[in-house]
Each structure stands twice: as C-alpha cells, then as structure tokens.
Amino acid sequence: MSFDSQDHPHLRYNPLKDDWVLVCPHRMKRPWAGHVEKPEEEDIPSHDPKNPLCPGNTRPNGKVNPDYESTFLFTNDFPALLEEAPVPDQSEDELFQCKEAKGTCQVMCFHPRSDITLPRMTLDEIRTVIDKWAEINVDLGKKYSWVQLFENRGAIMGCSNPHPHCQIWASSFLPNEPTVKHRTQREYYIKHKSPMLVDYVKKELNKKERLVLENEDWVWLVPYWAVWPYETMLVPKTHILRIEDLTDSQRNSLADIMKKLLTKYDNLFQVSFPYSMGWHGAPTGSYMEEDCNHWQLHAVYYPPLLRSATVRKFMVGYEMLATQQRDLTPEQAAEKLKNLPEIHYKDENKQ
Ligand code: H2U
C-alpha cells in the first residue's frame, strides 16, 4: 500500500515552533458521542447599558467610557502585568529560577456597537482597527520587548464580553512562543540567507494545496503544520518585520482579506466563529537596535470548532501528554474554507 497523506497517519514538522503534529485523517470517520457546546449567543443588543465596554457606560471601577464613535483604547482595569513591580531575588538553584516580569495590558474596542463583529464592519472601519494596531505596536514597542496584540472571540475561547474588542499585553520579556520563533527563524535565515516565512509563502503559492484566499499583498492559508482543525495563518507576500511597516495599500488589502476570511469563518458553521488570533512580528524594545531581518510578520488564527458550531476540538489526553494531534488534514480544511461564500450569512438577504 502506498502512502496517502489524506488517509494515513503521519507526523508533520512545524519549522516555526520546532515541533511536530500527528495527523490522523482516517479518524475523521469516527462517530462523535462527546461533549456538545452551547451555541454562541447570537442576539446581542447594539448597546447594553450594563456592558462596561459600550460607549458612555461606567465601568465597575467607576471610570466612564467616552461616547466613542470608532475604536476605543484603554488600560485594562484588571491587568495581568504591572508597569512597576518589585524585582524578585535571584536564586542560585537551577531548579527554582525566577525573573522579573513588567508590562502593561490594554483593551481596544473595535466599534461602538456590540452587535457588529469584524467581518461585518466596513473596510474603512477594519482599516481603522489596523492603523490602531500599528500605532499601539509603535507606542508600547518603544518601552517593551514584546507587544502581543490578540483577540479572543466567543465564550468558548474564554472571551468575557461579546462587545467586539481585542487585548494588548506588552511585556519587558520575550514570551515563550516568540522566543522559539525568534530562534527558529534566525537559524533558518543564517542557513538560507532568506526569511523562513517568505520562502514558505512562495512555496505554498506554487503548491496551491493549502491556500484559502490571496490578494495582491496577502496570503491566507492553512499551514502545513496546523494543529487546530481550522487553524490558519495570514502572511504578507513581501518581507515585513512589524505591523507598523505595512504600507497604506498593504493596510487596505489587509482590511479586504480580513473581512473575507472572517466572513468565511462565520459561514463555515453559520455562527459567529470563535477563535484566538494574534499578530507575531519582530520583537520591539531593545530588539529594535538588533538585526531582526529573519522575522516575517504574520497573524495566526486558532479556532477550536471541529465538526459544527457545538462540537469543539479538545487539546487534552495525548495532546497534553505526548504530541498535538489532528484528524482533518490541513488540505481538507483549506478546501472547505476556500469553497465557502464571501458574503456573510447574516447579510445574504441584503444582496
Ligand atoms: P476578553 O478579551 O477575554 O473578553 O477580556 C476582556 C478584557 O477586558 C479583560 O482582560 C477587561 C478584562 O480585564 N475589562 C476591563 O478592563 N474593564 C472592565 O470594566 C471590563 C473588562
């Protein structure tokens, strides 16, 4: 019997994270008798007087939100990282190492209305969010080594509030994921004299097996090494280190591809598709003085849903104890996403 990647179990290497994923396509045939999620709440009011993220409302700590009409950025009232914190004592014991962790956490509302998500915003409104992301990266990047822009969407991903928003955690240290990506991309760059993800995107554009969408500046694909069922990566076609380096036209084309990709995600199971997403680009702070040409800016989307709006993938058991594993192949996921309409299911009747 000859090997078929769409049928036979195999391991795939993730060169960015320097780890492996186990792909088991034959398991897609198994019946599901496990946990079923509650469907996401769909009828969200456009303004809820009790929601602390809505314009004009008073937050539990007494601060009053302005009557914002576009985006709204504020310092998280319950920040995980603090700008000033006592420095821990250094331990000589290699088994009990501890380091200082300083930083700041912010929240950015994307839109004044709670019932509008990114895919249903206008291109101009999405562009405003992109410009704001770039501004934040510059601003916090002056002081901090890593500025993590991320969005948790949906209660299933631990998102505490349905109002469209993202979070920003900026830290004095390079967190684990970027530390590994910093190393792997640098090693690749030294060996090949070219950035890993620039080469990877060129190869994916030739292969065409995992592409979902592309425009003049951007490629949206399911990575060869994806772990989550519908995990995707959004990468510019040219070499870009940080989000603020995107040109005016690259920002417009980013708004365009984001609207389409997020619409496809929502159309997959006809639900506001939950995910955690975030941007990874060259580190900031003191790294701005260093050569970071091995980095390529990219966004990653990690959605938990597997078979329907209510059946999610759990990263437990074998994944926690041994190796991350998936059933649906990245090629099957890409094909499914590619064939979905680019008109949002909630806007279908408006056409
Ligand atoms: P999620 O992205 O997980 O929904 O988190 C929303 C953040 O908003 C959360 O970190 C902050 C929470 O601390 N928040 C405030 O800063 N003030 C509030 O009044 C409500 C929520």
The tally of strands reads 14
> In percent terms, what proportion of residues is strand?
15-25%
As a percent range, the share of helical residues equals 10-25%
Mean pLDDT over the residues: 95
Shape: globular
Category from helices, strands and their pairing: alpha+beta
Looking across the biggest beta sheet, what order are the strands in? 3-4-6-5-10-11-9-8-7
Distance between the termini: 50 Å
Radius of gyration: 21 Å
Cofactors and ligands present? 5,6-dihydrouridine-5'-monophosphate
| Uncertain residue ranges | none
Biggest β-sheet strands, sense, barrel: 9 strands, antiparallel
H/I helix tally? 6
Helix/strand order, N-terminal first:
EEEEHEEHHEEEHEEEEHEH
Report what the structure shows.
This protein is of the alpha+beta class and 351 residues long. Helix content is 24%, strand content 20%. It is built from six helices and 14 strands. It has a nine-stranded antiparallel beta sheet, with helices on both faces. Strand 1 (10-14) and strand 2 (19-23) form a beta hairpin. Helix 1 crosses helix 4 (248-269). The mean pLDDT is 95. It binds 5,6-dihydrouridine-5'-monophosphate. The site of 5,6-dihydrouridine-5'-monophosphate has 13 residues, from loops.
